[in-house]
Amino acid sequence: MSGVDRLPTSNDEEMETAVGAAAAAVRRGELVVIPTDTVYGIAADAFSHDAVRALLDAKGRGREMPPPVLVSAVTTLDALAVDIPQWARSLVEEFWPGPLTLVLHQQTSLMWDLGDTRGTVAVRMPDDPLALAVLERTGPLAVSSANRTGRPAALDAGAAEQMLGDVVTVVVDGGPSRGGEASTIVDATGEGRVLRRGALSMEQLNAVVAPLGMSLTDEG
């Protein structure tokens, strides 16, 4: 493992150092590992074509599997997506920050290349103070689970460093993952489909959208 800084966050000073180092690395176009409320993630500047390509290469993925984008505020959603249905906004109000990823029609003016997205973007606001602190300094990040494709997602910084230490420059060590289960992915570009089951159940989701006359279908 060459050149990776694994930074602890056991007190405020260490947290500031780790967050600052991760944000600086992202601005340089480098890859970093950050904790989230689900599993550890490998992150890149969403607006850097080279960084996103490096992320996909690190994961062993092609352009047909574009990474989701993490944001630090609900208000960022309208800067990234258009035609957001009211039922999707209700899910955001209930479950953000948290383990809900929404697939939406992306703003056509966005100057990024996340892969073969077919005009969509998957967006989530994580419920993790370290992730949010990094995001507040960097803006939207392309983030995928910190693992090589086909291997289990990293639940601690050590596992992430073992798998990805040769391609990232900073690992923010936030201790063991609190969640351990991936986010639930909901496609909000049409009638409402659950693409991946995760930390949120169908019952939880439908309890929010039912008053709006909606019922999500389960394809996860």
CATH class: Alpha Beta
N-to-C SSE string, H for helix and E for strand: EHEEHEHEHEEHEHEEEHE
Low-pLDDT residue spans: none
The assigned CATH architecture is Alpha-Beta Complex
Backbone shape: globular
Report the β-strand fraction as a percent range. 15-25%
Structural class, by secondary structure, is alpha/beta
Structural domains: how many: 1
Number of beta-strand segments: 12
Radius of gyration: 17 Å
Alpha carbon gap, first and last residue: 36 Å
H/I helix tally = 7
CATH homologous group name: DHBP synthase
CATH topology: DHBP synthase
Tell me roughly what share of residues is in helical segments. Answer: 25-40%
Give a verbal description of the structure.
The structure is a single chain. About 30% of the residues lie in helices and about 20% in strands. The protein is α/β, with parallel strands linked by helices and about 220 residues long. The protein has a single domain, classed as DHBP synthase, CATH 3.90.870.10. The chain has helices at about 10-25, 50-60, 75-80, 85-95, 130-140, 155-165, 200-210; strands spanning about 5, 30-35, 40-45, 70, 80, 100-105, 120-125, 140-145, 170, 185, 195, 215-220. The radius of gyration is 17 Å and the shape is globular. Helix 1 crosses helix 5 (about 130-140). It has 7 helices and 12 strands. Strand 2 and strand 3 (about 40-45) form a beta hairpin. Strands 1, 2, 3, 4, 5, 6, 7, 8, 9, 10, 11 and 12 form a 12-stranded mixed sheet that branches.
